[in-house]
């Protein structure tokens, strides 16, 4: 038997509680793109010490905090573990094999890379800006949210396979 998804209202309430807890206990909101920047900074700092701390990269690629103590890196690990546990509890965890088409993989990787680049250029990802910024009533977040949703709906409609 396949379990249903959580209700959007209940999931939204839980997400809001997690966001509130992150502000109260960690002193900052949630987001995801910073974890990749922190990991890149840690790797670059090992290969070329001091190169990340220069003025051009210091605010974009943090390298001063070890990954094991970086809030965003730990948060991202929690997201992966939480997603796994959620699927397990809901009875949706199963192994499946789907055909992988090369063009689809390339588009997914290219889209992810462009989203990551945009997130770094904008000082944050969609979750950080929309959730944390929206909760703080940041004007940019409230401008961004409808544009992001509208663009996602348009691109999904344009990219969806056409029925003959």
How would you describe this protein?
With 164 residues, the chain is mainly alpha-helical. The chain is 64% helix and 0% strand. Helix 2 crosses helix 3 and helix 5 packs antiparallel against helix 6.
| Radius of gyration, in angstroms, nearest whole number | 19 Å
Q: Outline, from the CA principal axes? A: globular
The poorly predicted ranges are none
User: In sequence order, what are the helices and strands, one letter per element?
Assistant: HHHHHH
Question: What is the percentage of strand-forming residues?
Answer: under 5%
Task: Tell me roughly what share of residues is in helical segments.
Answer: 55-70%
Structural class: mainly alpha
Let me know the largest β-sheet: none
Query: Number of helix segments?
Result: 6
Q: Span between N and C termini?
A: 33 Å
Q: How many beta-strand elements?
A: 0
Let me know the average pLDDT: 80
């Amino acid at each position: 038997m396949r379990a249903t998804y959580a209700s959007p209202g209940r999931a939204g309430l839980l997400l809001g509680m997690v966001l509130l807890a992150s502000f109260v206990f960690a002193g900052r909101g949630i987001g995801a793109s910073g974890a990749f920047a922190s990991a890149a900074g840690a790797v670059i700092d090992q290969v070329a010490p001091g190169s990340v701390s220069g003025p051009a990269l210091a605010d974009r690629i943090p390298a001063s905090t070890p990954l094991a103590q970086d809030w965003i890196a730990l948060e991202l690990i929690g997201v992966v573990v939480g997603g796994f546990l959620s699927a397990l509890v809901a009875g949706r965890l199963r192994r499946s094999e789907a055909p992988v088409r090369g063009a689809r993989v390339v588009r997914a990787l290219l889209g992810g890379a462009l989203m990551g680049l945009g997130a770094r250029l904008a000082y944050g990802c969609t979750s950080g800006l929309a959730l944390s910024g929206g909760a703080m009533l940041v004007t940019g977040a409230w401008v961004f949210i409808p544009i992001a949703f509208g663009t996602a709906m348009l691109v999904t409609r344009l990219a969806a396979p056409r029925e003959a």
